[in-house]
Amino acid sequence: MTVADHTLRRLSELVDLVERNERSIGVLSTGERIAVALVLNRPDLLPDTYPHVLHAVDRLDDYWLEAAIEIAKQR
Description:
The chain has one domain (3-74). Helices cover 64% and strands 0% of the residues. The protein contains 4 helices and no strands.
């Protein structure tokens, strides 16, 4: 399994978790939270320190950003 595969799988699990229980987003790291919010197209779930979607996108590394885009395409 490559790093990208691991990130894709992890993000998919986190998206499912937050869809089942939105409050669970509070236990995620900043990067995980941003990626999940982007996949779900829910800017209201972004951390308060990233009020603009572009600032949040800039926070993600390439693996998380690519995983978010790929999962969003599949939804």
